[in-house]
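We now fix the convention by which a protein and its fold are recorded. These numbers are not coordinates but entries in a learned vocabulary of local backbone shapes. A record is reproduced here so that you can trace the correspondence yourselves:
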Amino acid sequence: MSRALLLRTATALATGLVLATALTACGGSSTAEGSDSGAKGGGEKTVTVYSADGLKSDKGDGWYDKVFADFTKKTGIEVKYVEGGSGEMVQRAVREKTNTQADVLITLPPFIQQADGKGLLQAYAPQGSDQVNGADKSADSKWTSVVNNYFGFVYDKKELTTAPKTWEELLDAKYKGKLQYSTPGVAGDGTAVLVKAMHDFGGKDQAMDFLKKLQANNVGPSSSTSKLAPKTDKGELLVANGDVQMNFAQSKSMPNLGIWFPAKDGGKPTTFALPYAAGLVAKAPHTENGKKLLDYLLGEDAQKLVSEVGGGFPARGDVKPTDANAIELTKLMAGVEVFEPDWADIDKNLTGYVDAWKSATGS
């Protein structure tokens, strides 16, 4: 499967961020209070991570839960974790540029490129990054993917005996008030809806024409993608957007949740890579600890757990998992065409694309 560059699920806005102990993977948030200042050499035994959601579990059994605990046990360095939407995490880091709090930023494309463009990242090539595909890391070592992932949709398997196949099916009246996707420009997976629609329909104007029609069935905006899966599992929604890693992990406790990939009528189902990309924050208060964490996230032990624990795809090409989840994920992706978006164009024109979506949908 191609491991092109991506755009990760982004979720809850930073409003009401709570301590990491109260974090949930389904859009919950946390904040690191009392972060130590100074300690550029990593003298303080702490490291602060700002991340998009999806890799930490409210049950404490997610990939972050496991690897952070192992990292702390091995190094004695405590991980302070802050979660929010991809765009929100970048905006928060921008606001804190004169008093930097984060050491590591993990988010989806095109937000990781935006973070780099805003001067938020410093160059560092983690150990193991030489095994990451060139499309999944920056040429100047400002960021590298730590977990690969793909954009997708979910459906309610209890209410729908088979998954929808095409975008056009979603215009049916049975989906009115039963369909929802997260907000483009705020949520990474919401932005992914625009990227995929523009690809599948052959351009911006064609995509906006379709999304304008789809708005008649859309419940409305949602800053959190991860909150849509529970609603789908409960039957409140029939269809919603998401991503493979997050939804696959959620499906273990949500039996009615199915994953599918829309096709344009007459075409093949498509998707594109949406990796969790990590970078060392410029002027980080604990730079050396941030480097150690990035090395650990790309280490073989952590990468082998990506599918088994996290339900995602290893970023390292030399790590070939054979666990049950890895086998199931391979079957899920069979027959799905993986395309590579023009991320430079999306990074440059994202505001325009989001504005066009707002105009088309009246959002």
